[in-house]
Amino acid sequence: MPKPIIWSPLSENDFISILDYLQINWNEKVVSDFIDITEDVIGQITTNPTQFPIINKKKQIRKCVITKHNTLFYRDRKESIDILRIFDTRQDPHKLKF
Question: Alpha helices of 26-76 — where are they, by DSSP H?
Fold first, then answer.
């Protein structure tokens, strides 16, 4: 049975910011496609949370590329999967905090 997904406040803000950017600079189709891709990736994570590489062993944080410009960071816990961030890879990597 798939584990429940828990979005951190940071990841929710990241997702909304990305959607706002896409809506302003692109169009509804691009926004819809990004939502679909994100849902597909989260579905893959719930099915097999260990399929993506660990980038921080101490904190057990895993990384999943959504698009070439967006990466999802998550943690597989015993009872749930925590989505920590959705990071725009065009930003300064030093801005990435969990």
Answer: 28-47
How far apart (Å, rounded) are the C-alpha atoms in residues 30 and 62? Answer: 26
Collapsed DSSP state (helix, strand, coil) of residue 49: coil
Calpha distance 30→32 (Å, rounded): 5
Angle at 13 between CA 82 and CA 33, to 5 degrees: 85
**Closest among 69, 83, 60, 67 to 13, alpha carbons compared:** 83
Of 34, 41, 36, which is closest to residue 18 (Cα–Cα)? 34
Tell whether the model's pLDDT for residue 45 goes beyond 80: yes
Coil, strand, or helix at residue 70? strand
pLDDT score for 91? 83
Average pLDDT, the chain: 95
| Token couple for 97 | 């905090």
The domains found in the chain, sorted by start residue, are 5-90 (3.30.2310.20)
